[in-house]
Write a structure and sequence with these properties.
The complex is a heteropentamer, with one copy of chain A (315 residues), one copy of chain B (429 residues), one copy of chain C (461 residues) and two copies of chain D (259 residues).
Chain B: H1 20-53, H2 83-116, H3 121-136, H4 139-150, E1 161-163, H5 165-178, H6 182-194, E2 200-203, E3 206-209, E4 211-214, H7 218-246, H8 252-271, E5 275-278, E6 281-283, E7 286-288, E8 291-293, H9 295-322, H10 325-333, H11 338-368, H12 380-392, H13 395-424
Antiparallel strand pairs in B: 1-2, 2-3, 3-8, 4-5, 6-7
Helix pairs in contact in B: 2-3, 2-9, 2-12, 3-9, 4-9, 5-6, 7-8, 9-11, 10-11, 11-13, 12-13
Chain C: E1 10-11, H1 28-36, H2 41-67, H3 81-84, H4 92-97, H5 99-104, H6 112-130, H7 137-157, E2 180-181, E3 184-185, H8 186-206, H9 214-236, H10 251-277, H11 282-297, H12 300-314, H13 323-349, H14 352-360, H15 365-380, H16 382-395, H17 407-415, H18 425-458
Antiparallel strand pairs in C: 2-3
Chain D: H1 2-15, E1 18-29, E2 32-43, E3 47-51, H2 58-65, E4 73-78, E5 81-82, H3 87-96, E6 97-100, H4 112-122, H5 128-141, H6 157-170, E7 175-179, H7 187-202, E8 206-210, H8 214-220, E9 223-228, E10 231-236, H9 238-243, H10 248-257
Parallel strand pairs in D: 3-8, 3-9, 6-7, 7-8
Antiparallel strand pairs in D: 1-2, 1-4, 4-5, 9-10
The chains are: A alpha/beta (315), B alpha+beta (429), C mainly alpha (461), D alpha/beta (259).
The complex binds adenosine-5'-triphosphate (ATP) (2 copies) and magnesium ion (MG) (2 copies).
Chain lengths: 315, 429, 461, 259, 259
C-alpha cells in the first residue's frame, strides 16, 4: 500500500510544478514554496509529524500523469484541472479542489477591448500541455471567432512572446495572470479581461487502486479547510486542543480516533496545522495580499464567507 | 594456365571444440536467447502494469477529436478534427522545417567551409568565429535567441514594414519605356494595376505575401511553363551531346533559363494575365488573406540551419583538404583552369569524404527540430508527444509512435545518402 | 656563374652559393597583408563586410550585458526601469542571489562542502592529466578515472548504500545471517564471497573449452571480483555522511555529473559497440547495428522521457531506479551509439598491415585490439570523440524535460520566483548559461586541437 | 587583345630557339632559399635527366617550369612564352607541357579512358569521339588499351604510371616533365615504365626527367644535371658525367647511389 | 590435456624432421584457385628464396605458413605442429615463426623499443627489463640501438625495415618469413636491409624469403623456388637455377627481372 511505502521510505514523493509562482517555485535558498508545496508538506506533517519529509519531483505539464501512473510520485499536487477523462481513463482520483481557478485573458490596454468576444482574429499565446489550450478552442468555436493559437513549452517563453507583441492576448488560469504581470516590461499597460471562459478546479491527484491512500490525502485537504472554518490556526492550535467545541475536539483528536481510520495517529490534524497552517494561512502565505502576487481569494473563500471552499465534516 | 583438374571446390571443414565457428555459434545462441527473454519480459510487465492500474491503451484515441488549434497547418485542419489528423499536421510541419533546414544548412555550411580555406584572414577569422560560436552553444539557446532577441524586435502589424509590389512594377515599367521596350512597359503597368495594394509585409506576426489566385486560362501558361522546363532539359542534353561530338561548349544554363522564363511571360502577356493576387489586408489584429510565414517557423529554421551549418562547414573543409594536392596539380598541369578543376576533379572526390558525416548532420537537424516546442513551433513532437500526450495520457502509444516516426525518417535519410555514397564509391583493386 | 648562353657542360665552383633573403615584397608585414588582406578588390570587400558584421553584433551585446546592466541589488526592485530610471540590461543581482543554486541545486547548505571537495579534487586531478608534460600520467589517470568517481559517488550521495543481496539473494538464498556493522550487511558479503568462488570454479571448468589456461582464467576472475568488491565496499560502508538524494542535486553539479558520466561511460561502451559492429558473428553484428541505429535515429528527448517515466511500466512490480541514474543511463547509451560510429571510423582507418603485424608477432585478437589497434584508432578519431563530448555537454540541457534541474533547469525554475520577476531576468539567465556552456565547450574543442597537433608532431611519417 | 599577340610574338621568336630556358631563377619558400640562380637551356628534342640528393630542389625546379610553383626572381621561358602572373600565359604553357608525377595522381573517380579524355575535351575542346580516339592511340602506345574501361584503383602501379604518361600525351605536349616517375613502383614494374619513356625519347620528345635510374640516364639522356642545395652543381653528357664527375659532391653522390 | 599432448607429440616427431612442410596445399579465394597443390619441405637451417611474377601466389603461400591465411586442402606442418582451426596450435606456430612484411607494419604509436618488447612481454610473458635487454640486443644486431627511443615515423624506410626484423627476432623464432622486405625501400636503403638478412642467414636461421633481389638469392639461398599461377614451377639450387633454368616460364621471368 502507498502509505506503507511512504512510511518505509521515510518521505512523501510529491509531484509539483517546475515553477509556478505562488504554487510551487524555489526561493533564493532553494526551498520549494507555494500552495501546492504546502499541501504536500501538510501530508508529510500528518504522517511523520515533520513537514520537511517531502521529496519534490518538479514535473512539466506533460510528464505529470506518466509520473503518477508509473509510481514515481505518491501524490500529484501540481495545479491540475479536475476533468472527467483524467479522473477515469487515466486511472486517477482527484481528492478535492485546492484552488478554484478559471481561465482568463490578458491584453494590452491600448487595444481598448472590453470583452473576449472582441478578440476575433487575434493571436493568442498559451502554454502547451494545459487545459487552457483546449478551452480556447472550445470557447472561440462556440462564439464563432477566429484565432491563432501559439503554444509554448514553458510559461516564460509564453510571456516573452506576448510581451514582445507576438500575440494580442495571453491566456492562462487567472491565478497565473497575476504572476505574469510581474514580468512584463510595463505591467500597467496590460489589463485582464472580465470573462472567465472555463472552470479550472485545481486539485491534488492520486492513483487508482489504493483507497486508503486516497482517503488520507482527501481528508488531509478537508481537515485543512475545516481548521480554517473552526478558527484553528498554527498559533493557537496548542490551546485549541483543549477547546470545548466538539467539532474542534474531533478535528484535533481530543475526541474520537478519526486519524486511525486512515492509518494516522489521532493528532494528525494538529500536526498539519501546527507545522503548515490551515487552508487560509497557506493561501495567504503564498498568494495573499502580502505576496508580490496579491491574489484576491474570490471563489476560494470559505463557503460561509461567500466562496466555494467547503470541508466535509470530521465526525 | 587453368587446367581443368584445378577447378575443384574447396572441401568442408572439420569440427573441433576450439573451432571459432562453433564458439561463435554458441555465443550467438546465448545472445539470442537473452535478447528474446528481455523483450518478452518487457512486454509482459507493461501489460501487467497497465492492466493493474486500469490505464487505457491502444490506438483508438487517434480517432477522437483533438480540440486544440495549431498555428501552422500545411493541410486543412480544425479543432474538430481527430488526433490522427493533428499527428499528420505535426509530421508535415516537422518534415517542412527539416527539409528546408537541410537545404539551407548545406548551402551556408558549404560557403562557410570554403571561407575557412580562404586566403583573406578577415573572412577566415569570421568563418572560424562563426563555427566556434555556433557549435559551442546549445541549439536551444540559439533558437531562443533568434526568436526572442531578433524576430521579436519586428514591428507590430500596424507598423509593418511593407514592400509594395505596385511601385516596384511601376518603376520597372518606367525604366522599360525609357529604353523603348513599350510592350514590356505596358505589361508591367498592367501587372502593377493588378497588385493595387502593397503586397509584402514583415511584422512580429511573420512575413505576409500575396497569395496567387489562378484563373481558368492560367493553365495554358502553366503548360507552356512545363514545356519550357522540358525543352530546357532537352537543350542541356543536346548541348552535352554536341560537346561530345564537336567539342563546342554551349551556355545551356542561361539558354535553358530563358526557355523556362520567356515563353510563359509572353503567353501571359497575350492572355492578359489570367492571374490575380489575393493581397493581405490588415483587419482587426492581423493580416487577412495572403500567405503567412510565422516567426516561430523562421526562428527554428534559421537557428537549426545556422547551428548545423557550423558542423557542415567543418565537414566540408575536411573533405576538401582530404583531396590530395596532387589531384589539383595534376589537373592544372593538364591545362585545366581552377573552375573545371574544382568541378570535375576536386568536388566529386571530396563528396565521398563529406557524405557520411553529412548524413549524420542531416539526422541531427531533423532530431533537433523537436526543440521547436520551446518557441511554440507546432512540430510533431510539440503536437503529438506534447499536447496530445497531455490530453490523452497514453504515453506508451504516443512515445512509441513518435520514436518510430523519427526512426523511419532517420533510416530513410541514411538509406538515401548511403545509396548515393555507394554510387560514387571508388572502385578499388 | 653561367650566362644565359647555356653551355652543354657546366661545373659549379667548389664553394657554393649562400642562401639569400627573399625579396621584400614577399616577406614581413607587407607581404603578409598583401597576401591576406587587400590583395584584390574582392578581398577588400570581404574585409569590410567582416568589420560590418562585428559592428552589428558586438556593441548591442556590450550594452545589454555591461553598460546598461544592474550589478547591485537584493530583489526585483533593483532591476526595474521604473526604479533605476533608465533602460535596464542584464540583472546580475539575480544571478548573485541564485548563485548557490546554480552551483549546487538544492543540495543542503550544510553539506555543500562535499560538492566543493568534489569540484576541487576534480580540478586538481584533471589539470595535470591535461598537461602533456606533467609526470605520473598513469597514476594520475588511474586516480581520475578509477578512484575519483568512487570518492565523488560516496561524497555526493553520502555512500552507505542499502545492499542486501547479491545474485544468490535474488534467487532466495541469503544464509539467514542478519548481522551488520558500519552499514555493511554480513549476508551480502557472504553471498559475494560464495559467488566469487562459484565464478572461479566455473571459469576453471570452462577454461579449456575456450582455449584458456585454468589458472590464468581463475586469477582473472578473482581480480575482477576483487575490484568490484572494493568498489562495492566503498559504497556500502557508512562513513557517517548524511545521505543526499539525487533529486536534491542540481545546477552545474548535475550538468557536470551527467556530462562527465556520459563522457566516461560512452567511450568504453562505444568501443564495444564499434567492435561488435565489426564482428564476424552475424547476431552480434546485427544487434550492434540495430542498437546503434536505433539510438542515433530517435531524438534524445524521447529517450529521456522513456527512461524516466515509462521504464517503470516495463519493469516488474514497483521496481524503481533513481531518477538521475535513469537519465544517466539514457544519456550514456545515446552517447555511446554516437561514439561507436566515431570509433568505427577510426578502426576502419587502421591499415590491414597493422592487424597482420600484430598477429604475426603472436598477439591474440584481444591483445591485438588493446595494444595495437585501439590506441591507434582512438588517436585518429580524437576530434570526433571530442565533438561527441561537446555534443553531450550541450545535450545535458535536455534533461530538464525529465525534471532534472541542470544548470539551465535551475535557472528556469528561478525565473518563476516572484521576488525576481523582471522583464530582463530571462535574458540575463540565458546569457549567463550560454556563457558557461560556451566556456566549457570552447575549452574542450581548443584542447582537442592542441592535443591533435601534439600527437601529430610526435609521430610524423 | 594585345596580350595574345604578345604571346604569339614571343612564341614565334621562341620557335627557333630553346624549348625551355631558365635564366637566373631564384625561389624562396618563406625564408628558405630553395632555388639559387638556376640557369638552364633545353633545346627542342633534348632529353635531360636531373638527379641529386633529397631536398636539393629538383622537384621544385621542374614544377616551376609549368608554374605549379611561382618563382620570385629570374625568367622562365617555355616554348617562347615567358611565365608571368598572366593567367593566359600560364594556360598556354600548361597546354604545351605535360607532367608525370611520382604518385601518378590519376583521378580515381574516372575511368582510364575518362582520365585521358578529360583535358582534351575541356581544354582543347575536342569532340568526345576524337578525344577517345586519341586516348586509345596513346593507351595502345603504352600497351594498355584493354584497361580503358577500368578505374585507376584496379590497375597495378606500373600500369597506373603508364596511364599517367598516356594522359599527359593526349594533350600532345611539346615538352614532357617527369618527377621521379618510377620511384613509387615495384621493381618489376619499373622496367615497363622506363621502356615507355625510352620509346617516347626515341620519338624525339623534349624531356626533363628527375630520376635516379642511372641505367635510363645512360641510355637516353643527352645531358645529366646534378643538383644540390638548390643549385646546379654539375651538368654534362652522360658518358663523362658518370665516368668522370668533376665536382666533389657529384662524386660523393654517385658513389652512394651506384652501390 | 589430450590436445596439448597431441601437439607435443607432433612437436617431438617433428624435432628431427623438417622445419616447414607443405603437403598438397590448396587454397581458394572464393572461386579463384590461388594455391594449387603446393608441396614443399624446408629443412632446419635451410634458406629458401621464392620468386615469381606478381599475383603468382608467393605472398599467399608465405602467409599460409603462419596462418595469416587459411588453407583449405592439404597439410601444413610447421616445426612439427600441424596447422588446423585449433587456435592453440595457431598461437604455437606464430610464436615459432617470425614474419617481415613489405610495408614493415611497425606499430606507429609505439617507440622502436616498445615495438620490440610488446610481443615478448605480452605473449612470452617476459619481465619488462628482460624484454628490453633482448630488444636492445637485436637492435644492436641490426645496427640501430641508438634509435630505440624514437617512433617509427621518425626513421627512414631502411631503418624501419631493420626494426621490423629485430622485432620479429625478439620473439626468438625458429623460422623467419620475409615477404619482399626490400621492395618498398628507396634504392639507397636496400643494401642495409639485405646486409642484415645476410648476417641472419649466416647464423643459420631457417628462412623463407620472397624477393626479387637476385644478388641476395645467389649469395645466401640454399634453394630458389619459382612460382607462377599458384604452382611451384621450378625449384633448384641457385647456381643451376640462374645459369640454367629448366622451365620456359622461368627463363622468361629471369630475362625480365635481370634487365
Ligand atoms: N611548400 C613548401 N614549403 C616550404 N618548403 C618546401 C615546400 N616544398 C618543398 N620545400 C622544401 O624545399 C626543398 C626542396 O624540395 P624539393 O621537393 O624540390 O626537393 P627534391 O630535390 O625534389 O627532393 P626529393 O628527391 O626528396 O623529391 C626541401 O628542403 C623541401 O623541404
Ligand atoms: N584477399 C584476397 N581476395 C581475393 N583474391 C586475392 C586476395 N589476396 C590476394 N588475392 C589474389 O591472389 C593472387 C595471389 O596473390 P599474392 O599476393 O599471393 O601474389 P604474389 O605472388 O605475392 O604477388 P606480388 O608479387 O604482387 O606480391 C593474386 O591474383 C591476387 O589478386
Ligand atoms: Mg622531389
Ligand atoms: Mg606479394
Amino acid at each position: 500500500a502507498t502509505l506503507d511505502d511512504v512510511k518505509a521510505r521515510g518521505a512523501l514523493n510529491c509531484g509539483v510544478s517546475q515553477g509556478l509562482p505562488g504554487f510551487s517555485n524555489p526561493d533564493d535558498k532553494g526551498n520549494w514554496t507555494g500552495l501546492d508545496v504546502d499541501f504536500c508538506r501538510a501530508i508529510a506533517a500528518a504522517i511523520f509529524n515533520d513537514a520537511s519529509k517531502v521529496k519534490y519531483s518538479p514535473l512539466s505539464a506533460k510528464d505529470r500523469f506518466t509520473a503518477l501512473q508509473s509510481g514515481a510520485i505518491d501524490v500529484l499536487s501540481r495545479n491540475t484541472t479536475w476533468t472527467m477523462s483524467r479522473d477515469t481513463t487515466l486511472g486517477f482520483n482527484f481528492v478535492g479542489v485546492m484552488y478554484y481557478d478559471g481561465q482568463g485573458f490578458m491584453v494590452r490596454k491600448s487595444l481598448n477591448l472590453k470583452s473576449v468576444n472582441e478578440l476575433n482574429g487575434a493571436s493568442i499565446c498559451v502554454q502547451t500541455g494545459t487545459t487552457n489550450e483546449l478551452n480556447v478552442g472550445d470557447y472561440f468555436r462556440t462564439n464563432n471567432l477566429k484565432y491563432e493559437l501559439i503554444a509554448f513549452a514553458t510559461i516564460d517563453e509564453t510571456i516573452k512572446a506576448y510581451d514582445s507583441g507576438r500575440c494580442d492576448a495571453f491566456t492562462s488560469d487567472q491565478s497565473q495572470l497575476y504572476a505574469v504581470r510581474l514580468k512584463l516590461t510595463n505591467a500597467s499597460d496590460h489589463v485582464v479581461l472580465p470573462e472567465v471562459i472555463s472552470k479550472e478546479p485545481l486539485g491534488p491527484v492520486v492513483r487508482h487502486g489504493d483507497d486508503q491512500w486516497f482517503d488520507l490525502v482527501k481528508w488531509s485537504y478537508f481537515a485543512l479547510v475545516d481548521a480554517e472554518e473552526l478558527g484553528v490556526n498554527s498559533k493557537n492550535v496548542d490551546q485549541m486542543v483543549s477547546s470545548p467545541n466538539p467539532e474542534i475536539k474531533r478535528l484535533l483528536g481530543s475526541d474520537g480516533k478519526f486519524g486511525e481510520a486512515i492509518g494516522l495517529p489521532v493528532d494528525w490534524v494538529a500536526r498539519m496545522v501546527k507545522q503548515v497552517g490551515n487552508y487560509g494561512e497557506i493561501f495567504d502565505r503564498n498568494l495573499g495580499p502580502n505576496t508580490p502576487l496579491a491574489i484576491d481569494r474570490g471563489l476560494n473563500k470559505l463557503w460561509n464567507k461567500g466562496g466555494l471552499q467547503y470541508g466535509m465534516p470530521v465526525r | 594456365m587453368t587446367d581443368a583438374r584445378w577447378s575443384e571446390p574447396a572441401p568442408t571443414r572439420r569440427w573441433s571444440w576450439t573451432d571459432p565457428a562453433l564458439r561463435s555459434a554458441v555465443i550467438q545462441i546465448a545472445l539470442a536467447i537473452a535478447l528474446i527473454w528481455m523483450a518478452w519480459s518487457f512486454f509482459a510487465n507493461a501489460q501487467a502494469n497497465l492492466a493493474r492500474q486500469g490505464i487505457a491503451s491502444g490506438f483508438g484515441f487517434l480517432d477522437n477529436s483533438a480540440g486544440f488549434g495549431i498555428t501552422q497547418t500545411l493541410i486543412p485542419y480544425s479543432e474538430s478534427m481527430s488526433y490522427g489528423r493533428a499527428f499528420l499536421v505535426g509530421l508535415l510541419n516537422t518534415l517542412l522545417v527539416a527539409a528546408l533546414g537541410i537545404v539551407l544548412a548545406t548551402i551556408i555550411g558549404f560557403l562557410v567551409g570554403v571561407a575557412r580555406l580562404s586566403k583573406n584572414v578577415v573572412i577566415k577569422a569570421l568563418a572560424s568565429a562563426y563555427v566556434e560560436v555556433t557549435r559551442n552553444l546549445p541549439p536551444l539557446f540559439q533558437i531562443l535567441f533568434w526568436y526572442l532577441a531578433v524576430l521579436s524586435t519586428m514591428p507590430s502589424p500596424r507598423q509593418s514594414w511593407s514592400f509594395g509590389l505596385q511601385p516596384m512594377f511601376n518603376a520597372f515599367a518606367g525604366w522599360a519605356s525609357g529604353i523603348g521596350l513599350t510592350p514590356l512597359s505596358d505589361m508591367l503597368a498592367a501587372l502593377a494595376g493588378d497588385v493595387s495594394a502593397p503586397g509584402v509585409f514583415i511584422n512580429n506576426r511573420g512575413l505576409v505575401v500575396p497569395r496567387p489566385v489562378f484563373e481558368a486560362d492560367f493553365s495554358i501558361i502553366f503548360w507552356i511553363f512545363v514545356a519550357g522546363i522540358a525543352a530546357a532539359f532537352l537543350l542541356a542534353r543536346w548541348a552535352r551531346r554536341r560537346q561530345e561530338r564537336t567539342g563546342q561548349q554551349f551556355p545551356s544554363f542561361w539558354a535553358g533559363l530563358a526557355l523556362v522564363a520567356v515563353p510563359p511571360t509572353i503567353a501571359g502577356f497575350l492572355l492578359g494575365w489570367p492571374l490575380s493576387f489575393e493581397t493581405p489586408v490588415l483587419r482587426g489584429f492581423n493580416f487577412v488573406g495572403g500567405i503567412r510565414v510565422i516567426p516561430e517557423f523562421v526562428a527554428l529554421l534559421v537557428a537549426l540551419a545556422i547551428y548545423t551549418a557550423g558542423f557542415i562547414a567543418e565537414i566540408v573543409r575536411a573533405g576538401i583538404l582530404a583531396v590530395s594536392k596532387g589531384q589539383t596539380e595534376a589537373a592544372y598541369s593538364l591545362g585545366l583552369r581552377s573552375g573545371p578543376t574544382l568541378r570535375l576533379v576536386v568536388i566529386p572526390q571530396a563528396m565521398r569524404v563529406i557524405v557520411p558525416p553529412l548524413t549524420s548532420q542531416y539526422l541531427n537537424l531533423t532530431k533537433n527540430s523537436t526543440l521547436g516546442v520551446a518557441v511554440g513551433y507546432p512540430d510533431l513532437f510539440a503536437i503529438f508527444a506534447g499536447t496530445t500526450l497531455n490530453q490523452t495520457g497514453q504515453a506508451i502509444e504516443i512515445i512509441a509512435l513518435t520514436m518510430a516516426v523519427y526512426l523511419v525518417i532517420s533510416i530513410l535519410t541514411s538509406a538515401l545518402m548511403g545509396w548515393y555514397n555507394k554510387r560514387v564509391a571508388l572502385v578499388e583493386r | 656563374m653561367t650566362t644565359a648562353q647555356n653551355p652543354v657542360s657546366y661545373v659549379a665552383p667548389t664553394d657554393l652559393l649562400k642562401p639569400e633573403p627573399a625579396p621584400v615584397s614577399d616577406r614581413g608585414a607587407y607581404g603578409w597583408a598583401r597576401a591576406h588582406l587587400f590583395g584584390s578588390v574582392g578581398q577588400v570587400l570581404l574585409t569590410l563586410f567582416g568589420i560590418l558584421v562585428v559592428l552589428a553584433v558586438v556593441p548591442p551585446m556590450v550594452r545589454f550585458f555591461i553598460t546598461d546592466a544592474v550589478f547591485i541589488g537584493t530583489n526585483r526592485e533593483a532591476c526595474l526601469p521604473e526604479t533605476v530610471g533608465r533602460p535596464v540590461g542584464a540583472c546580475w543581482p539575480f544571478i548573485a542571489a541564485k548563485w548557490n543554486q546554480i552551483l549546487y541545486g538544492f543540495y543542503p547548505a550544510d553539506e555543500r562542502w562535499r560538492v566543493n571537495v568534489v569540484y576541487g579534487l576534480g580540478v586538481v586531478l584533471l589539470i595535470p592529466l591535461l598537461i602533456p608534460r606533467a609526470p605520473y600520467k598513469r597514476t594520475n589517470a588511474l586516480a581520475f578515472f578509477g578512484i575519483y568517481p568512487l570518492i565523488s559517488f560516496v561524497l555526493l550521495t553520502g555512500g552507505d548504500l542499502d545492499m542486501r543481496s547479491f545474485v544468490l539473494g535474488w534467487i532466495g538464498l541469503d544464509f539467514g545471517v542478519t548481522a551488520s556493522a558500519n552499514g555493511l550487511r554480513l549476508t551480502f558479503w557472504l553471498q559475494f564471497l560464495v559467488v566469487t568462488l562459484l565464478a572461479m570454479a566455473s571459469g576453471m571448468a570452462l577454461a579449456p573449452v575456450f582455449g584458456g589456461e585454468r589458472r590464468a582464467v581463475a586469477l582473472g576472475i578473482l581480480k575482477a571480483f576483487a575490484v568490484v568488491g572494493i568498489v562495492m565496499l566503498a559504497m556500502d560502508f557508512d562513513f557517517g555522511l548524511p545521505q543526499v538524494e539525487t533529486r536534491q542535486w542540481g545546477g552545474l553539479l548535475v550538468t557536470l555529473v551527467i556530462a562527465v558520466t556520459g563522457i566516461v561511460a560512452s567511450l568504453p561502451l562505444g568501443i564495444l559497440l564499434a567492435l561488435g559492429r565489426r564482428s564476424e558473428l552475424p547476431l552480434v553484428k546485427y544487434s550492434s547495428i540495430i542498437f546503434i541505429e536505433f539510438w542515433r535515429g530517435v531524438p534524445l528527448i524521447t529517450v529521456l522521457f522513456f527512461a524516466t517515466y515509462m521504464l517503470p511500466l516495463f519493469l516488474p512490480g514497483r521496481f524503481t531506479i533513481d531518477g538521475l541514474l535513469r537519465a544517466l543511463v539514457g544519456v550514456a547509451l545515446f552517447a555511446s551509439a554516437y561514439m561507436a560510429e566515431v570509433v568505427r571510423g577510426g578502426l576502419q582507418a587502421i591499415p590491414k598491415g597493422q592487424y597482420e603485424g600484430a598477429m604475426a608477432v603472436g598477439l591474440r585478437s584481444g591483445l591485438m585490439m588493446r595494444l595495437v589497434i585501439l590506441p591507434q584508432a582512438l588517436k585518429l578519431v580524437i576530434p570526433g570523440i571530442v565533438n561527441n563530448f561537446i555534443g553531450l555537454f550541450k545535450d545535458t540541457t535536455l534533461v530538464l524535460i525529465v525534471s532534472i534541474f541542470d544548470l539551465l533547469g535551475i535557472l528556469r525554475a528561478s525565473f518563476t520566483d516572484p521576488a525576481w520577476a523582471t522583464p530582463t531576468t530571462l535574458f540575463t539567465g540565458f546569457g549567463f548559461a550560454g556563457l558557461v556552456y560556451f566556456v566549457f565547450c570552447y575549452g574542450m574543442s581548443r584542447y582537442s586541437m592542441a592535443l591533435e597537433r601534439r600527437l601529430d608532431r610526435n609521430q610524423r611519417h | 587583345m594585345s596580350q595574345t599577340s604578345q604571346i604569339k610574338a614571343d612564341a614565334v621568336a621562341g620557335e627557333a630557339e630553346q624549348a625551355v630556358e631558365l635564366i637566373g631563377v631564384n625561389k624562396w619558400y618563406g625564408d628558405f632559399h630553395v632555388l639559387r640562380d638556376i640557369n638552364l637551356s633545353v633545346r627542342r628534342g633534348e632529353r635531360i635527366v636531373v638527379c641529386g640528393p633529397s631536398g636539393s630542389g629538383k622537384s621544385t625546379m621542374i614544377r616551376c617550369i609549368n608554374r605549379l610553383e611561382e618563382h620570385q626572381k629570374g625568367r622562365i621561358i617555355v616554348d617562347g612564352i615567358e611565365l608571368t602572373n598572366d593567367l593566359k600565359r600560364i594556360d598556354e604553357v600548361r597546354r604545351e607541357v605535360g607532367m608525370v608525377f611520382q604518385h601518378f595522381n590519376l583521378f580515381p573517380h574516372l575511368t582510364i579512358l575518362e582520365n585521358c579524355t578529360l583535358a582534351p575535351m575541356w581544354v582543347r575542346k575536342m569532340p568526345k569521339k576524337e578525344a577517345e580516339e586519341v586516348a586509345m592511340h596513346f593507351l595502345t602506345k603504352v600497351k594498355i588499351p584493354e584497361q580503358a574501361g577500368k578505374y585507376p584503383g584496379q590497375l597495378s602501379g606500373g600500369q597506373q604510371q603508364r596511364v599517367a604518361i598516356a594522359r599527359a600525351l593526349c594533350m600532345r605536349p611539346r615538352i614532357m616533365l617527369f618527377d621521379e616517375p618510377t620511384s613509387a613502383l615495384d621493381p618489376e614494374m619499373v622496367k615497363e615504365v622506363l621502356d615507355t619513356m625510352v620509346s617516347l625519347a626515341n620519338e624525339g620528345m623534349t624531356m626533363l626527367c628527375v630520376t635516379h635510374e642511372m641505367g635510363f640516364a645512360r641510355q637516353v639522356a643527352d645531358r645529366v644535371i646534378f643538383m644540390d642545395a638548390g643549385q646546379i652543381i654539375e651538368m654534362n653528357e652522360p658518358e663523362p658525367f658518370f665516368s668522370n664527375p668533376q665536382h666533389e659532391r657529384t662524386r660523393l653522390f654517385l658513389s652512394q647511389i651506384l652501390h
